[in-house]
Design goal:
156 residues; 49% helix; mainly alpha; 8 helices; 3 strands
């Protein structure tokens, strides 16, 4: 006896698969990431060693207070303290000048952060809203209210 043959025939799918053009990946490679992090670390270390930076002991001497108070000010956003790879902070000495002293806590509040690198980056980055000046330069030129408005806009 012969096996029964199926009366169902196989239908082939003749639809063409259309593939989207290959786009470059939006992610960087591991090598590019490593290079970016290394250059970032180098830039941070260079900034920490700049001539306008002091340690917490020197900052305490300038402000006629203690290192403990300086550390408390940093944690509250009263002073800009930059974390190092080792223990302790480095601080931009110019923040103790009268024109900056009252602005730093307002700036910290407007930006919504007490993180020193973020605050310093804001102060040292040229902004279109200041015609290419840095907020630090604008404060030195008496444009404190404009800087605080821009910080508030960025902090939201």
């Amino acid at each position: 006896m012969k096996p029964a043959t199926s009366s169902v025939s196989t239908v082939r799918n003749t639809a063409r698969v259309v593939r989207a053009p290959k786009r470059p990946s939006p992610y960087v490679s591991a090598a590019q990431t490593k290079s970016l992090l290394a250059s970032s670390l180098a830039a941070r270390n260079e900034r920490l060693q700049a001539a306008d930076m002091v340690n917490t002991d020197d900052a305490a001497g300038i402000a006629a207070t203690t290192r403990v108070t300086i550390n408390a000010w940093i944690s509250k956003g009263r002073a800009i303290g930059l974390t190092q790879t080792r223990r302790g902070f480095r601080l931009p000495v110019w923040q103790f000048d009268p024109q900056f002293w009252d602005v730093i806590p307002k700036l910290s509040k407007a930006l919504g952060t007490t993180e020193g690198w973020t605050i310093l980056s804001f102060l040292e980055t040229p902004l279109g809203g200041l015609n290419g000046k840095t907020p630090k330069m604008a404060i030195e030129q008496g444009l404190t209210d404009r800087v605080l408005d821009l910080a508030a806009a960025e902090g939201t």
